[in-house]
Amino acid sequence: MKIGMYHTDILILLADLTLISTYDNLSYNKLATQSLTYVGPSSGASNAVDGNIATCTRQFAIGLTSPHETVWWKVDLGDVYNIYSISILFKTYDGHECIDGMYGLKCLQQCLGHCRDNVTCNHVTGHCDGGCDKGWTAALCDKKCDDGTYGYDCLHNCSGHCLNDSPCTKQTGHCDRGCEPGYTNTDCSKATVT
């Protein structure tokens, strides 16, 4: 498990109207502890905050059928911060992340392949962390856009002027069957001048 906690510092220079934003890894090399540690080389809690993705903080198996139903891990940041985001990277117990396209417990579930820019899903949750590809929505990007919406995560509305109330394409918003009389363009959004 790797963890990164990020604090945002924003500096606005009014004379130049410049915005600078930086992120700091607040957990880097801070004191980290965990309830149980797997006996073996490179298994300590401090490995989760050392900035090295090749090391890992390893736990014994946890869950309903193991002797350890719950375990904990924590890091002392040394101060109070407003946290912008927390990133946690998991590895499976054999030390390898799931192969691309697989996720979940023991990497047995297959990603659906509808993540934005053909990125593979999160190997733990199956979610598309960067959003859904054009024409898809929901946490797992497994739901096609409803009629009348299109684009990444189905965030755009169709023009509503496709011929015979036909739906626009869920990827581009184009009206493949043509436009109602009085409208033009690939998405039928431009009224013709009479």
TrEMBL record:
Signal peptide: 1-22
A Pfam cross-reference name: F5_F8_type_C_2
MF terms in GO: scavenger receptor activity
Domain of life the protein comes from: Eukaryota
Annotated InterPro entries: Galactose-bd-like_sf, MEGF10/SREC1/2-like
Keyword list, A-Z: EGF-like domain, Signal
Protein's recorded name: Multiple epidermal growth factor-like domains 10
Organism listed in the record: Magallana gigas (Pacific oyster)
